[in-house]
Request: fold
Amino acid sequence: MKEQLLAIKEKALDSIENCTDIKECDAIRITFLGKKGQLTAILKQMGRLSAEERPVIGQMANEIRTEIEKTLVEKQGRLKLVQIEKKLEEEAVDVTVSLKEHKLGKAHPLTQTINEISAIFAGMGYTVVDGPEIDTVARVFDLLNAEENHPSRDPSDTFYIDDNTLLRTQTSSVQIRVMQEQKPPIAIISPGRVYRRDEVDATHSPIFHQCEGLVVDKGLTFGDLKGTLIYFAKQYYGEDMELRFRPHHFPFTEPSCEIDCQCFKCHGKGCPTCKGEGWIEILGAGMVHPNVLRNCGIDPEIYSGFAFGMGIERLTMFKHEIEDMRLLYENNLRFLSQF
Ligand code: DAH
Reply:
């Protein structure tokens, strides 16, 4: 019986040693120490032993039971620890990992210009309206009083889709849309893209941006036009910006003018940036031609209006001293992030 007990002890300690799972420990306990376990089975046979043998075997059996139990508890403790460590390891946050930096984007300089212009005119009570980039020959030329042989009508200058439809060459077409749709008083600006068959160079692009302005009401004069544009230029460029109004011709305005800003580099003295002029042209403007008002069903005897059109690229380049227009389209972040 002694040998049997020793064999049980050895088997039990072996199983404990090799066990890798807490649940397995319980199974081992049942196998060896449970009511129907191997050790219990031996003890049940104690009756067969002699009076001298019984206490000796009894003590031995108890010692073995205690040892198995103790070893099991220790093993369970160790396995529990391993389990916790494993869990901690799995759930660990690596504080040394650098998170990707989230860089906030910002508006493109041309969009910034459009937003600034819109804010200034909105402050004067203007509404900002949108117009389609594909429009009719009627709205881009005819109703704007453009001469039959005006060079911009030529297919070598303009992208036609068919005889009556084209990519607008100017945002002035929006003037017609607005006057066809609403009656005076009107005060709108309309920024957007325009298209011309131009070769790309430092100052030209076949796609560029303009911002149109139109005001129609009773009793408007050239003084209103001047005051509005001077106020705009000072808001946009700064209080000390001076403007120069030069007579010009546009089919849709009479009288018409071109407006120059004083050169930011030489302040009017003349330098390479302004090609010795001291001034840089930034917009065209004038009093809306009576024919244009009439074409849109507005009586020029009752109403008058003024209109203006500015180049967004020009304004942006002038403000930020950008010398090559192509930089505005190349999407080079090192360039764009400066603005
Ligand atoms: N549409 C003209 C251009 O593309 C700019 C312009 C000039 C617009 C005079 C106007 C204006 O509204 O009155 O060159």
